[in-house]
Amino acid sequence: MPNLEYAGDELPSPEEKTLFRKYEVGRLLGYGAFAKVYRARDVHTDQNVAIKAINKQRILKGGLAANVKREISIMRRLRHPNIVRLSEVLANKKKIYFVLEFAKGGELFAKVAKSRFSEHLSRRYFQQLISVIGYCHSRGVFHRDLKPENLLLDENWNLKVTDFGLSALTEQTGHDGLLHTLCGTPAYVAPEILAKKGYDGAKVDIWSCGIILFVLNAGYLPFNDPNLMVMYRKIYTGEFRVPRWTSPDLKRLLSRLLDTNPQTRITVNEIISDPWFKIGYKEVGFHHDYLELKDDNAGSGSTTSTGDNLKVMNAFDIITFSSGYNLSGLFDDREEGERFLSKNSPEKIIETVVTVAEGERLTVVTRKEWCVKVVGGHNSILEMTVELKRLTDELVVVEVRIRESEVGPSDRIYTDKIRPGLSELVYKTGPAGCP
């Protein structure tokens, strides 16, 4: 079950054997500017995993804390057989650890770097890639950094997409409905990103898929030059030549994938209907475990009423709400929090929180239908925000976030005074259901 824990262990020194007394860490698999990935073994299950260790200090200096939180949020909502699965997140003061599914086959890049693939094999991996991209886009997720280095292979040589660190969500689009953050790897970047006028996340993923398919079939990049500006000019004008061994049907598909005009570029649905793509294609079967969640985005400035806005949540989200999968403390050790379920109405919950807070002489600074914020006394030693989300017709998720200042022991105010006053709100499902 996915979980978020905090512990004092670092990656083990040569003298140490395990991380968090659970993972025996092995060799380094790869590294980047902010993270290192290790092979590891779960000592309890004997299962191989990959551990991505992220340096907090470098992330904070680079202003990328929000990216890490978003990556966790995105990976926990994606459940597809061709996506590397996030099973656990661990953290301490210096590092954050993603415990990931281990892809035994390694990087696809390493395989194609040795020799180009046959058209048959290129098609197989491209079909799996498009299955993933279609799935992600249907859930409002855009990868934005697709390349062979981020495509792994499992023990059965099936594709596993990884590294959602640069991914974006539909809600990140601007008023024009487009994304504006410049990101991606130069040789795989879409021409509309270079234009710096905003872009459709789905369209740029399709472009990157076209680059990948070209590389699998040709063994080299369609746009490449030692001079970066020259390469960008080739991308912008769509200057590329397919190798002579490329079949007419594949050549036609590549031309539609690498269409410099995003408006006419082929879509996922059109790809699936393409004659070259359809050969031997079987839709990936996986279980959709989704339900509708009413949500008014309390606290986000939205004025949409709860009844008018539907949010999709999967079973993973339900599990993490009930088990306290809280990301607030990853980069700010002063902020703590918890979640619990309640059968009470939102009005009753908010009223109870306000009554208990005012009874402790706390000041209510914000009160909305689905959110309330209070601060503690004239010294503001406690800042508490309570947000509600409708989970089912009967259950409400109550999320409490507490930020303590250096003035006084605010955690005692919440633990000793406020928390007991909220106990009547908790949906009792057993010992684990108590706040």
Principal-axis shape equals elongated
Estimated structural class: alpha+beta
CATH topology of the largest domain: Transferase(Phosphotransferase), domain 1
Mean pLDDT: 79
What's the Cα radius of gyration? 24 Å
Taking the sheet with the most strands, its summary is: 6 strands, mixed
> How many β-strand stretches?
18
Uncertain spans: 287-325, 406-411, 429-435
Question: What is the helix content?
Answer: 25-40%
Q: Taking strands numbered 1, 2, ... along the chain, how are they ordered across the largest sheet?
A: 1-5-6-4-3-2
Number of helices: 13
Strand residues, percent: 15-25%
Total of domains: 3
> In CATH, what is the homologous superfamily of the largest domain?
Transferase(Phosphotransferase) domain 1
In CATH terms, what is the architecture of the largest domain? Orthogonal Bundle
Q: State the name of the first-level CATH class of the largest domain.
A: Mainly Alpha
Kindly, what is the distance between the CA atoms of the first and last residues, rounded to a whole number of angstroms?
19 Å
